[in-house]
Structures are given as structure tokens and as C-alpha cells.
Specification:
This protein is α/β, with parallel strands linked by helices. The protein has one domain: Transcription Regulator spoIIAA (2-Layer Sandwich), CATH 3.30.750.24. It is about 45% helix and about 30% strand. It has a five-stranded mixed β-sheet with strand order 1-2-3-4-5. Helix 1 runs parallel beside helix 2. It is globular.
């Protein structure tokens, strides 16, 4: 699992994930991702290059969203592939963390 961070205009942080967000992948990025959630108020998590999402990845996303929200911020997910979107929907994660199809709508959502 790879993690890249881009600070965008208006204080929005774009976090791009690439690879399998399973137990191994989540453990690789857990500390850095959690630190980002603890220090940012507006996060967009790009899932377009995530090829697999397992329970540990879901735990990481939910925990980070809770951290960002507890500081009055917003975290959203962006552009998951069909299989990953299906996992998010089936698990009900999309009702807890909003999912947007593209960067423009995702950034607009966290700026609110």
C-alpha cells in the first residue's frame, strides 16, 4: 500500500491511496494516515487506485474519519473502483463517510 499526500488550496488535504487496503496494507500506512487525520481538518481520500478493501482498511478509514470529525472537520472518500464501492455500500460505510465521484465534488464537500 502506498500513500501520497497533496496539500490543496483552501486547506484541503488530498490523500491518495494505491494498492490493497487489507491487513498488510493498512498496517503499512496506519501510523502516517492516523497522524494526517489528527492534524488536518479537511481530508479527501482518493480510493481510485485501491484494488481491494478489507475490514482492517474499513477500520482505518472509520477511525480517521472520527478523528477528523471530532475536531469539527470533514473527511470524504473519492472515486472508489466498483469492487471497493460495493464493499463500502454493503458495509454501510458510505452512510458514515460520504463518497464522491470526482475531486471537484469531494473538495467542495469538505470546504463546507
Amino acid at each position: 500500500m502506498e500513500l501520497a499526500v497533496e496539500d490543496m488550496e483552501s486547506g484541503v488535504t488530498l490523500v491518495r491511496l494505491n494498492g490493497r487496503l487489507d491487513i498488510a496494507g493498512a498496517s503499512v500506512i496506519d501510523l502516517r494516515f492516523s497522524a494526517l487525520a489528527g492534524s488536518r481538518r479537511s481530508m479527501v481520500v482518493d480510493l481510485s487506485e485501491v484494488t481491494f478493501l478489507a475490514s482492517m482498511g474499513i477500520r482505518l478509514l472509520l477511525g480517521s474519519a472520527k478523528t477528523v470529525t471530532s475536531k469539527g472537520g470533514h473527511m470524504v472518500l473519492m472515486a472508489p473502483i466498483a469492487d471497493v464501492k460495493n464493499v463500502l455500500t454493503t458495509a454501510g460505510i458510505d452512510t458514515l463517510i460520504p463518497v464522491y465521484p470526482d475531486v471537484q465534488s469531494a473538495v467542495a464537500a469538505v470546504k463546507l
